[in-house]
Amino acid sequence: MFKLIFNLIDKTLFTLMFIIGIQIPAFINAYRQYLSGQLNEAKEHLTQYQLIADMQYQGSLEQLITAFKNNTDKAIQQMSTVISHNVESVNAYQQQLFNLENGSYVQRIFYFVAHIDLEKASDTLIRFVPAIPLELNAIITGVFLSLLLSTLLNTLYLSGKKLLTTKVSVSTKNA
User: Is residue 175 assigned to a domain?
Assistant: First the structure.
């Protein structure tokens, strides 16, 4: 009876992991699109400052930032921080998108897991619509995660069964 229940749980978890696994490529794509939107927004903000830098500082944003920093007005000094943050955001989004769009599928998965921005991933998840992608990478990911979980569960089950039979045989020998 216990074996039947365990097999049912194993099969259910296998199926759930498969469904989750095939969603990973679609979620990464949605996350990448979200980052792309963030990049476009950051570039749009930076464009206005770039126009000023083009007119006043031969296109150098660094010189514009320095001029703002050196201004005696505190509000204008604080604008240098805003511009610097915008430049850093554009560079960070470009780097993240490059890593999510280039390299092998496995490299992109590892990059995503290692460098995920939880806030942006949460925003992506809110808007994410699960789908059943018919691409090989999604199916392989689903099968891999399912097999991994199933192997782990079966290993735990067999270890527990072995431990239980060892304790039962030791206690019958002592009796």
Answer: no
